[in-house]
Amino acid sequence: MSQPRDQAHHDDALDTDERLWTVEQLARFLALPVATIYAWRYRGEGPPALRIGRHVRFRPEDIEAWLQEDAQTCPVSDVRSRPKIRPPKRGRT
Fold first, then answer.
1. How would residue 88 be classed by pLDDT, with cut points 50, 70 and 90?
2. How far apart (Å, rounded) are the C-alpha atoms in residues 66 and 46?
3. From CA 63, how far away is CA 47, in angstroms rounded?
4. Residue 39: which of 30, 82, 79 has the closest Cα?
5. pLDDT reported for residue 3
6. Which of the four pLDDT bands, split at 50, 70 and 90, describes residue 71?
7. Rg of the chain, C-alpha, whole Å
8. Under a CB-based contact definition with an 8 Å cutoff, are residues 37 and 26 in contact?
9. Could you name the CATH architecture of 19-75?
């Protein structure tokens, strides 16, 4: 017995990479703490998000577009002009 057409389409949609991402999935993808994603949301930064009830979700295409935009707005010269971070000096013992 086959599934109703709507149910079969729904199951296919769940098997693709096009489903919405959670905050945890985005944080794992970017190798950042979950708290950073929430901080970005609070400050109005980061990729656009959807609020579904009390849940925050991200469209994969919005994440990709945000990454492309961020890569274009952060020229290499900005990175080179920043001072190098050095470890703190140890005190005398």
1. very low
2. 7
3. 6
4. 30
5. 55
6. confident
7. 20
8. yes
9. Orthogonal Bundle (1.10)
Band (pLDDT 50/70/90 cuts) for residue 72 is confident
- pLDDT, tens digit (0-9, with 9 covering 90-100), for 49-69: 999 999 999 999 999 999 998
**Alpha-carbon distance 18 to 39, whole Å?**
25
Residue 35: left (phi > 0), alpha (psi -120 to 50), or beta? alpha
Asked if 41 contacts 32 with a C-beta cutoff of 8 angstroms, the reply is: no
60 alpha-carbon distance from chain centroid: 9
The helix or strand, by DSSP H or E, that contains position 32, with its residue range, turns out to be none
* C-beta separation of 55 from 38 below 8 A: no
- Token digits of residue 91: 């005190």
Structure tokens at 20: 């919405």
Domain ranges of the chain: 19-75
